[in-house]
Amino acid sequence: MSRVIKKLLIANRGEIAVRVMRTCRERGIATVAVFSDPDRSALHVRYADEAVHIGPPQPRDSYLRMDKIIEAARRTGADAIHPGYGFLAENADFARACTQAGLVFIGPKPEIIEKMGDKASARAAAEEAGVPVVPGSDGVVHTVEEAERIAESLGYPVLIKASGGGGGIGMALVKKPAKLARAFQSCQDRGASSFGNADVYMEKYIESPRHIEVQILGDQHGHLVHLFERECTLQRRHQKVVEEAPSSFVSQQEGMRERLCTAAVALAKQVNYQNAGTIEFIADQNGSFYFIEMNTRLQVEHPVTEMITNTDIITWQLKIASGEALTLEQSAIEATGHAIECRLYAEDPSNRFFPKPGEIETFEYPSDDDIRVDAAFTAPSTVTPYYDPMIAKMSVFADNRASAIARMTALLSSTHIAPLTTNRDFLLEVMKASDYEQNQVDTTWLERFAKSLHA
Ligand code: ADP
Ligand code: ADP
Ligand code: MG
Fold first, then answer.
1. Which segments of 278-423 does DSSP mark as H helices, in order?
2. 121, 137, 171: residue to mutate for ligand 2 pocket, most atoms within 8 A of CB
3. This prediction's pTM
């Protein structure tokens, strides 16, 4: 079914709402923002053609209110809804409610969100597609006794994961049997309270891994391609901070890119995946990789892929959702150069990256052809405690990794943001670190590096 999108409501806030609206402007699509009380004069509201108030600060009373958002779309005559990331982006009920209200949901079908958004069932789909998964439980683990048995057979350390988890939340590393029961319980509780799903499963904890993921695009007519990989190994609290494309680690391993991207496409094809999605893997230092999860939505770090492949992922999301054919042929998609993205956060790296909301009086950065800044704020404004403390994504493009690091160092050095506490100085230290320059990193490196700076 083909549907023309003339007006799009963005069910999100911050930089990602602005990012989606930018493509809409370029394509002559009118935009509708939604906003909570503290976001009344936020950038995404000012950038939109129209804006609708949907409630108080707490996400459950505003950005998670499906009824209010769909009503806002009805009232403004929007034909489609883009969920961004976070909030309702991986909520199958929301996708279904949009469709039932006659609105195009910019994302995969609800059944696919259900299947691949649930980590335990996505793991099963990966196994069916012949994609390697981290050794772990056979689906959901129901009791502590069962968990103990599985941990014993996998060998410690193990990870307990909430099936509905995301954003690094709902995961517990267990190093010895004595700590298992408590961690099991707390993951179930966290899953229930944060994601409305108390199911948990278990995986062997892979030591010293890298996080590498593949961007997928599929249309409604069975055509599916990948846009290569991203390296997202620099994390704190299991959440990404610095991302790159391509992965230099992958480039160094004979045949790995081909194997990785082929596995990702095989899994996406297996579930007849439609729209943009990301298949996440962890890789050990030998280049063996294992599926961990699929994100059935636009990813925070999509800009690095757009920069090296010269594509606009939002444009494709909109075209695919309106029924158009994905006209990109795999053989014609080329990756050139190197892109790095740094997430600028209102947080304190010297205090375990604790969020530090505050006032932005100055926020200045240079602009150039090889610089891309996806910002959620302009000065003056306030970073409130209600939402993710990300201020902006600072990205650069260059011929190769060394030049991209130099470019990022220059960009961060000439970025001025005050008076609130941010991770800018920390990001600069990362760019200058020899381990980073030599790409000798794993997913625990960033936190260890932060500790070494503040020791
Ligand atoms: P991505 O998987 O796109 O790289 P992240 O891992 O940073 O993005 O975050 C995954 C999702 O979880 C994002 O959509 C983000 O908005 C959301 N998220 C981030 N922090 C939190 C939080 N504290 N609670 C709930 N969701 C969060
Ligand atoms: P989320 O939905 O919160 O993004 P993921 O399953 O993608 O959860 O895991 C987030 C991060 O946790 C990964 O990027 C990786 O750093 C780490 N991680 C996940 N699974 C494992 C594992 N089995 N072994 C080691 N690290 C893991
Ligand atoms: Mg993940």
1. 302-309, 313-321, 401-413
2. 171
3. 0.97
pLDDT of residue 383: 98
In the DSSP assignment, the letter for residue 30 is E
Confirm if 428 and 413 have CB atoms less than 8 A apart: yes
Are 190 and 169 contacting, i.e. CB atoms less than 8 angstroms apart? yes
pLDDT tier, 454 (very low <50, low <70, confident <90, very high otherwise): confident
**Gap between the Cα atoms of 173 and 159, Å rounded:** 5
d(CA 160, CA 151): 10
Which tokens go with 72? 């806002």
In order, the DSSP letters of 144-173 are HHHHHHHHHHH-SSEEEEEEEEETTEEEEE
Please give the Cα distance from 423 to 240 (Å, whole number): 13
* Coil vs helix vs strand at 68: helix
Residue from 308, 304, 309, 210 nearest 260 by CA: 210
Q: Which helix (H) or strand (E) holds 321?
A: helix 313-321
Q: Which residues contact 110 (CB under 8 A, 6 or more apart)?
A: 92, 93, 95, 96, 99
Note the Cα 381 to chain centre separation in Å: 25
Q: 145-188: per-residue pLDDT in tens?
A: 999 999 999 999 999 999 999 888 999 999 999 999 999 999 99
Distance 168 CA to ligand 3 centre (A): 7
pLDDT in tens, 396-431: 999 999 999 999 999 999 999 999 999 999 999 999
CA distance 78 to 118: 29
Closest by CA to 390, choosing from 379, 381, 377, is 377
CB of 292 closer than 6 angstroms to any ligand 2 atom: yes
How many degrees, rounded to 5, is the angle at CA 280 between CA 275 and CA 283?
A: 150
DSSP 3-state of 136: strand
Which secondary-structure segment (H or E) carries 182? helix 180-195
Q: Kindly identify the ligand whose nearest atom is closest to the C-alpha of 157.
A: 2
Of 145, 118, 146, which is closest to residue 136 (Cα–Cα)? 146
388 Cα nearest atom in ligand 1: 20
Give the model confidence (pLDDT) of 14-37 as tens digits: 999 999 999 999 999 999 999 999
Region of 170 on the Ramachandran plot (φ > 0 left; ψ -120 to 50 alpha; else beta): left
> Coil, strand or helix: which one is 287?
coil
Which ligand has its closest atom nearest to the C-alpha of 162?
2
